[in-house]
């Protein structure tokens, strides 16, 4: 995948064969924040994804036909837990992450359930989550734990449709399925 304009992107269900590519993507995507926090470990950054990977709750973001990101939405307490949301660094800022998140949140809003996640302290991703209605539940020196109640945030004002134009040209629905 080149760093020039992305011709098209979409989501597809993850498979067990995707785990190593996702683990590598995680290492690349998280390295700057983990190094800033003094927490980067070459092996651990990949192993954490491998240990918690569930293909049935994960979608792959494809851009120009190759794996460019991933996101998992798994059942958690009274709603969902959003995790492993990574996008290749060269694709950030093009609206893909916003569109993927808005689509997931439209689905969880329709179910009427909250979504929780954690993001590293100081991560730029926190701004994306806040724009979509996530608020801080608690923090520790490394992580910020956030929640989004149904019907809050940007996805309510601007519903995303998987076949809409813009950054998601031709994107297909591929949200992780409910159990």
Automatic annotation (TrEMBL):
EC numbers for this chain: 2.3.-.-
GO molecular function: acyltransferase activity
Chain segments carrying region Disordered: 156-179
Keywords: Acyltransferase, Transferase
Domain N-acetyltransferase: 9-151
CDD domains found in the cross-reference section: NAT_SF
Coiled coil start-end: none
Keyword Lipid biosynthesis set for record: no
Signal peptide annotation: none
Record has Transferase as a keyword: yes
Name listed for the protein in its UniProt record: GNAT family N-acetyltransferase
UniProt source species: Streptomyces atroolivaceus
Lineage of producing organism: Bacteria, Bacillati, Actinomycetota, Actinomycetes, Kitasatosporales
